[in-house]
Amino acid sequence: MTRLVEVSELDSDTVAWLYELGWNSHFAESLAALGDRSLSPGRVGADYGADFLVHLDSGTARADLSRELRTAGRHIAVGDWVALRAGGDRPEIAAVLDRQSAIRRKTPDMEVSEQVLAANVDVIFIATALDGDFNPRRVERLLTVAYQSGAAPVVLLTKADAGDAEAALAETRAVAPGVPALAISSRTGEGLDGVRQAIGRGRTAVLIGSSGVGKSTLINRLVGSQHLRTGAVHRSGQGRHVTTRRELFVLPGEGVVIDTPGLREIQLWAGEEAL
Ligand SMILES: Nc1nc2c(ncn2[C@@H]2O[C@H](COP(=O)(O)OP(=O)(O)O)[C@@H](O)[C@H]2O)c(=O)[nH]1
Ligand SMILES: [Mg+2]
């Protein structure tokens, strides 16, 4: 197991890595307020149902929810900062640090435990593809989701190699005046520097948009390796839905990005029947 470093023994290299993961004084204060110097910070990277993947100052570990949090029915979201206690053979999540922002479902009558999509997000990329998926009305609806979260929206017109980027940029500006919009292609590399700049070191972005628009492929390009399986295009041109869970990726020096599965949960947030 990855060794947990207690807050009291954090050195500057460790803290520098935590900042790459999105750590800041807000979370440091929240951790300090727990008054237990044996706890160490970690950021939730994935929810596997039975346990969680947590990013630590020194790599990643699988962590369980403490009995107290489980009993309390505490929901943990990808992107949450948590306080970890060294457990038997692996760490235990003892507390969730105060969230700075949360992307929530719009529908209020959902189970509370299902409402937070991603926590502590600075930028929401609204991804829509130029190979037939683009629809300015959907961009408009997803913008309302973004505005409710407190994170800053950026529209990504993906697959710019396969459509009319100029026309789509003009339509996007008409429905979303003042919102940054980028035409990008993971195939040619067009616009990827703009994506990196829109995230930025120590900041966190989440990608939302229908299944098949190229979210995972973009993250693959940004991460620089094939961490994610991406779907082959079917004859119909539809991408296959392969991202099954929200997952956080660290881009050292360039921020953090969260992938989402797309379609179904976006429909729920946007209160839509079909996207
Ligand atoms: N032409 C083109 N195809 C792309 C691009 N990015 C992704 N794709 C394809 O679109 C399909 C769906 O991609 P994927 O990343 O799985 O979409 P996701 O569901 O949004 O994560 C795959 O077959 C990709 O190869 C791009 O920039 N240009
Ligand atoms: Mg995907």
What is the architecture of the largest domain at the second tier of CATH? 3-Layer(aba) Sandwich
The gyration radius over C-alpha positions equals 19 Å
Biggest beta sheet summary: 6 strands, mixed
Strand order of the largest sheet: 10-9-8-11-13-12
For this structure, the CATH topology of the largest domain is Rossmann fold
Poorly predicted tracts of residues:
232-241
* Tertiary shape: elongated
H/E topology pattern: HHEEEHEEEEEHEHEHEHEEH
Estimated helix fraction = 25-40%
How many DSSP-defined strands? 13
Q: What is the CATH class of the largest domain? A: Alpha Beta
Beta-strand proportion:
25-35%
The CATH superfamily of the largest domain is P-loop containing nucleotide triphosphate hydrolases
- Helix count equals 8
Bound ligand species: guanosine-5'-diphosphate, magnesium ion
Taken together, the total number of domains comes to 2
- The chain-level mean pLDDT equals 84
Q: TL;DR?
A:
The protein is built from 8 helices and 13 strands. It has helices at residues 12-20, 25-32, 67-71, 136-149, 165-175, 192-199, 215-223, 263-270, and strands at residues 40-47, 52-56, 59-65, 81-85, 92-96, 102-104, 116-119, 123-129, 152-158, 181-183, 204-208, 247-251, 255-259. The longest helix has 14 residues, at 136-149.
Account of the 3D structure:
The chain has helices at residues 12-20, 25-32, 67-71, 136-149, 165-175, 192-199, 215-223, 263-270, and strands at 40-47, 52-56, 59-65, 81-85, 92-96, 102-104, 116-119, 123-129, 152-158, 181-183, 204-208, 247-251, 255-259. By secondary structure, it is α/β, with parallel strands linked by helices. The model is unreliable at 232-241 (pLDDT under 50). Helix 4 (136-149) crosses helix 5. It has 8 helices and 13 strands. The protein folds into 2 domains: 7-96, Nucleic acid-binding proteins (OB fold (Dihydrolipoamide Acetyltransferase, E2P)); 116-270, Rossmann fold (3-Layer(aba) Sandwich). The protein is 26% helix and 25% strand. A hairpin with a 4-residue loop joins strand 1 (40-47) and strand 2 (52-56). It has a 6-stranded mixed sheet with strand order 10-9-8-11-13-12, sandwiched between helices. A 5-stranded mixed barrel has the order 1-2-3-5-4. The protein binds guanosine-5'-diphosphate (GDP) and magnesium ion. Guanosine-5'-diphosphate binds at residues 158-159, 161-162, 185-187, 211-217, 230-233, 239, 242-243, 262.
